[in-house]
Amino acid sequence: MMTPERTVGRLSLYRRLLVAMRNRGTKSVFSHELASAAGVTAAQVRRDMMVVGCSGSPAKGYDVRELIEHIGLFLDSSEPESVGLVGVGNIGRAMMAYFEGRRPKLKMVAAFDSDPSKVNRVVHGCRCYAMEDMARVVAERGIQVAMVAVPAESAQEVADVLVRCGVRGLLNFAPMALRVPEHVYVEDIDVTTSLEKVAFFARSRRANKVSVS
Ligand code: NAI
Asked: Is pLDDT at 70 greater than 60 in this prediction?
């Protein structure tokens, strides 16, 4: 059975929280503590931990290191995965900086850009190639996953090229829906919509508070 997308998202979030706990010296954690940090219920945490094969003890909770290891075994591939990036602009460079050395199992190995002034540069340890080199580099480096960080008007054409080169997963920053074949998985990151949502709900909560008092 396919693991639901939301479970995968929560496991990724738990791991980030658990790594921060481990770095602070925390050895064990109760489901309600992790739940409160992740904004979910303790029952949800326990169900998710069953998926990765971990059960805590009522007295001591879960072993933090063991949870991190089990989530890793479940989420990560056994070999490091090569990630590509198209669009070495503001967002692209920020992603390169963020991922440099942070996720050993997801390594950004190549970037691509249509701007000749960016080609052959090494940015945060990652080489930038011309679009014409994509098919070769994707095959040589075994890239299956790529980030799309180009302007909206170029995003579909870039996605088409990536898919033709054999990429099967896209993280799309461009504010437009990509059309891809069924075997390709797309995740959209829409910061503007998220920010507008936050501003909207912050406003409506403020209004509610004022009307109550
Ligand atoms: P940018 O203009 O700084 O960088 C875009 C890069 O894509 C440039 O290096 C450009 O040469 C390259 N490019 C353009 N067309 C291309 C093509 N056909 N093939 C290959 N490379 C191409 O843009 P920025 O700010 O990094 O934004 C990237 C995407 O992320 C846009 O779709 C934008 O709407 C979206 N976005 C940006 C945010 C931000 O804070 N900068 C926030 C949310 C979304």
From this structure: yes
